[in-house]
Amino acid sequence: MSSQAFASAAGRIDVGGDLTVNRMGFGAMRITGAGIWGEPADRDLAFATLRRVVELGVNFIDTADSYGPEVSENLIAGALYPYPEDLVIATKGGFVRPGPGVWNRDGRPEHLRKACEGSLRRLRLEQIPLYQLHCPDPDVPYAESVGAIAELKAEGKIRHVGLSNVTEAHIREAQAIVPIVSVQNRYNAVDRSSQSVVDLCEQESLVFLPWAPIQQGDDNPAIVEAAKRHGVTEHQVILAWLLASSPAMLPIPGTGSPHHAEENTAAASIELSPAEVAAISGL
Question: Is residue 67 annotated as a catalytic residue, yes or no?
Answer without folding.
Answer: yes
